[in-house]
Amino acid sequence: MDRDGLWGATGARSVAALVAWKTGSSSTHAHTIATVAGRLQEFPRCAQGMREGRVSLDQVGVIAARAGEGSDEHYAELARSASVDQLRTAVKLEPRPEPQSESDPGPDPEPQASITKTADENYTYWRITLPHLEAATFDAALQSHHDALIAQWKHDHRENDDDHTAPNRPPLHGTPQAFMRLVETSWDAEVNARPHGHYTTVVVHLDVEQRAAALHLGPLLTDADRRYLTCDATCEVWFERDGQPIGAGRATRVINRRLRRALEHRHPTCAVAGCGATRGLHAHHIQHWEDGGLTELANLVLVCPCHHRLHHRGVITISGSAEHLIVTDSAGRPLSAGSLARPPNFPPPAVPPCPGPTGERADWWWYQPFQPQPPQHN
After folding, report:
1. Which of 78, 87, 129, 310 is the most exposed place for a label (fewest CB within 10 A)?
2. In the predicted model, is pLDDT for residue 277 greater than 80?
3. How far, in Å, CA of 17 to CA of 7, rounded?
4. For position 347, what pLDDT does the model report?
């Protein structure tokens, strides 16, 4: 399932997310289960100890997360007496593979850009990490907007102003104001180009009478793709005579901004039970407008791109009303947000309870970490 990406068919973002959804467990516990399952073949002794009740899932989860190859026997013995925190320390003490020699240095890894966000009661903190080239572009754009703000300030507060107004002058704008000006300017340009702000524009020619559509200068679309693209789109009316265009009407949106805000206020997440996606949602016609469905609040729901595609491909069915939505799979079974976990219908295994760690304080001075085998070279 993980190798073939089958978990994506359910709308889950990962195997761990699928496990958390279907079992009703926390995301941390589900991540531990997925990690152990991914390396179960590498740690047969640890897995056997977990089956026999000698070690816990959290202990095996720490080992499977970072332990080196061939360390199964070492950590299976250590887990008999070590706690989860002690196992985590032992794994950290494990020596890592030496970097390649200077005679044959490998290619430098590509620097990875990242944006992280944290918040507290008073502020929201953004941390931006960029490679040097992208950072230079960002610095130039930020400096340009900073200079524009300073020039605007000087224009609004000339040096020949009266002295009594000087104490009331606002301070010069700094880098935060320049950054916000950069964001607002790009957002205004984005809104003018794409009022929705979520999708890249795809031009499709639609024949309403024949119910056929084709990409601009491209192939015909399938019925599923045609319905998927026309659920939430910008329409530009063209007038034709004998198959030849003779004029164009004004571009209009099927889902305008006010209607979309009402949708987001009513249901801020994907309408499919258990999904919980909040970003990049598509407005979907419950009764498609090709079939006479109206573009109004009672006939619209927000769904994530994954479930939107699954619906138009026939994998899931969305019916009912917006207030009482019915989502079923291809077999007609309703999908619910509840866990699929059920009480076991077989007796528990006849194993003694897990004794747990001994509780002794670890003396790491005498501990011998696992020594991984050096890589073999041809």
Report:
1. 129
2. no
3. 9
4. 83
Phi, psi of 109 (to 5 degrees): -65, 150
Residues found in the chain: 378
CA distance readout (Å), 279 to 229, 282, 318: 18, 9, 20
The 10s digit of each residue's pLDDT in 17-26 is 888 877 778 8
Q: How far is CA 356 from CA 60, 263, 333, 369, 377, in A?
A: 13, 51, 43, 21, 41
* Beta bridge partners of residue 85, listed in sequence order: none
CA distances from 252 to 82, 139, 204, 249, 257 (A): 66, 38, 14, 9, 11
Contact of 64 with 72, CB cutoff 8 Å: no
Tokens describing residue 184:
């607002």
Q: How far apart are CA 164 and CA 332, in angstroms?
A: 77
The residue written with tokens 């300030």 in the block is 153
Contacts of 119 (CB under 8 A, 6+ apart): 125
Could you tell me which residues come within 8 angstroms of residue 20 by beta carbon, excluding any fewer than 6 positions away? 26, 27, 29, 30
Angle at 258 between CA 255 and CA 260, to 5 degrees: 50
Beta-ladder partners of 115: 128
Cα distance between residue 288 and residue 299, in whole Å: 9
Q: Cα separation of 91 and 4, whole Å?
A: 30
Q: Are strands 300-303 and 282-285 parallel, antiparallel or unpaired?
A: antiparallel
CA–centroid distance for 300 within its chain: 24
Q: How many CB atoms lie within 10 A of CB 212?
A: 13
User: Treating both helix axes as pointing N-terminal to C-terminal, what angle do 57-66 and 84-93 enclose, rounded to 10 degrees?
Assistant: 10
Write out the two tokens for 211. Answer: 């119910």
Q: Would you place residue 339 in the very low, low, confident or very high pLDDT band (cuts 50, 70, 90)?
A: low
